[in-house]
Amino acid sequence: MSRTRYDWSKLCHDILRLILESLHYKDYHRARTVCSNWYTASTTCKRPLYPWRIKFNKISTSLFDPREDKIHEIQHPGIEFSDRNVLASCSNWFLMVDSGLEFYLLNAFTRERINLPSMESSILGKERLEKEVAWKHFIERTDIISTKKQACLWINERTGDYVVAWSIKQHYLFTYKKGDDSWLNLEGTKCVSMALNKDYKLYVYALDNSITIFDLYGEFPSEIVEENPYRNHPFSFRFVSKPEEHAWKQVVAITNSGEVLMIVSLKGLEDKRLFYIYKMDFGSCNWERVDSLGGEMLIFGHGVTIRAPILDINGLGIKSDSICFRGDDLWPLSQLFIPITQPMCGVFDLATSTITWPKSLDASVLKSFWFVPGHA
């Protein structure tokens, strides 16, 4: 008796949507990568986007879902995370680098890995041997994990297309996208912060306070000049701040509608640690402070806002008009002569200027990173 084999990839979208919506989040994020049809069906599921936390252990990851208040453990056999560092994330994917400057993308749920070209061999090339020697002496392991590096990632989970940008010591900026032969060096771009959107546009906040926009879609990156309204209107915090306000970090971010924001981590009156948001008034061409993210939320340094749940999730502060951050994004407690007893992740409420810290102080919180599953 013969058996009829059914092609599950061809299930109608209504049935697929019902199946996907019935799954727990970890299984849902694995199932949506089965094929393009399942991924398309997943985009119609009524699942809210919100940040999770992830901790990279020695050979596994711990993923904390704040809505379910549950930690998912995923084993990664064959991968040693102790000498690898997280540079950026997009949806379920992380940009990783090891001490030998070997880059790769890693899916937190499916464990799929995409190796990127070697930085040394692809950027420098055999014909640039002298510079290669200088590069090897210039980049040290401490540089990879320092605050002097910036990175961003965008990936289309349906097509598999992706683009990566990475900067070190504010003097070197490299880009790579799927299909490129090697990393490309945007020479002369002194990057302080950057953001990357789905249109392959790279927004760079530079040392001279200017905002440069690059189009990464073509064979080589090209600067957008005429259509960059921010080009001749630099953002300088000292021109918009009060005497008692001192900036710690300044990052650029892009909203879902395409607006450019400058997010400032600072120390305010009575040493209060705060985040301020600025956007340019196109009438006056001045940067002005705004009090909200327009109902969206942001992970500090990730560069792109997300549509947030309106209500707080389990009292963790994760809601509209909030900023998720890691401990080193805030003004250092050591400079305020306060004992360091707070965890590495928190949420800042723009409406009340208050911080909500995680309820638990275990290792999964102290060394974890924010990411937003399913957001790309």
Automatic annotation (TrEMBL):
Residue ranges of every copy of the KIB1-4 beta-propeller domain listed in the record: 63-340
Cross-referenced Pfam families: Beta-prop_KIB1-4 (PF03478), F-box (PF00646)
Record domain F-box: where: 8-47
Gene3D superfamilies for the chain: 1.20.1280.50
Domain of life where this protein originates: Eukaryota
Name under which the protein is recorded: F-box-like domain superfamily
Protein source organism: Arabidopsis thaliana x Arabidopsis arenosa
